[in-house]
Amino acid sequence: MSSARRLPPLRSLAVIGALGTSALLLTACTNADTNRSSVAEAAPTGSPTATESMSKSPSGSATASMSEDKTKRKDLVSATKVAWDKAADTAVKEVPGGKLVEIELKRTDADATASPTGSPTGTASPGMPNPAPSAGTPEWEAKVAQSDGTLHRIDIDAVNGKVFRTMVDPDQDPDDKTQITDWLGKAKQTPQQAVKAATDKTKGTVTKVELDENDSQQVVWDVDVVDKTNWDKTTVVVDAANGKVLGQDVDKD
Prior knowledge:
alpha+beta
């Protein structure tokens, strides 16, 4: 008589099943912890989270700040109290019968001193009692021509409007003087008329007016205008014969 195989009791089966389930759960938990550790190790140390990245302000970025040239432009124009036309009138009065050829707003040189009329030496004189402004403060540097083309440089304090230096250009030769008289003869538009044409085209503060000749050998007035809303500088080219605007170039740097 063959004996039948005995089946394990139900209680034993339940214990075995419970042990198997516990083993599976333990294995799954171990694998999950391992995966989380691997991900944490793979993440770059110190990298910002999405929340941190969104909270950072772009105000410190280079694109949000002004360029060095714009900052200098702003500081110079903001410190200036005397407009170009007032300085030009003052400069022209220093040279009897003279005509303005150029005027530019710039910083005063460190070696600026008062000097007698016509003297390039920079020697102080009782006839020129106005002291030079401190280095770095704004000044108008003007060039005024006599009828024979001789250029005089007149430096004017851009804060109080006083002349502190005047001298004859020591580097002119006869050809330079002839060129100046030729340009002035062709320039039917005054500097004031040229500036009006330029500022009708682009609004702002005038920082330079210069008589020049373009590539087409036309005598022109170059007028620099600074926009105080963004501190861009626009150079407007005006035909010195008829006052028409020939072109403009914007410096956004």
